[in-house]
Amino acid sequence: MSKTIAIRPVAAPAADAVQLTDEERQPCEVWTRVMGYHRPVASFNIGKQGEHAERRFFAEPAALGRCA
């Protein structure tokens, strides 16, 4: 005997429904992988932070088409 369960999706609040003042906001911590370790970008020295800002990101499927 099997039971059927009805699942009703819960509506998420609209992005414009949430408004924060500057005092309520907090900084977002960005992490990246360097030499096999995950580290926060804020802990990088000034040179490594500059290198991180200059990085180019790519999508693998797009890059694979140019390798032939």
UniProtKB/TrEMBL annotation:
<keyword id="KW-0560">Oxidoreductase</keyword>
<protein>
    <submittedName>
        <fullName>Anaerobic ribonucleoside-triphosphate reductase</fullName>
        <ecNumber>1.1.98.6</ecNumber>
    </submittedName>
</protein>
<dbReference type="GO" id="GO:0008998">
    <property type="term" value="F:ribonucleoside-triphosphate reductase (thioredoxin) activity"/>
</dbReference>
<dbReference type="InterPro" id="IPR012833">
    <property type="entry name" value="NrdD"/>
</dbReference>
<dbReference type="GO" id="GO:0006260">
    <property type="term" value="P:DNA replication"/>
</dbReference>
<dbReference type="Pfam" id="PF13597">
    <property type="entry name" value="NRDD"/>
</dbReference>
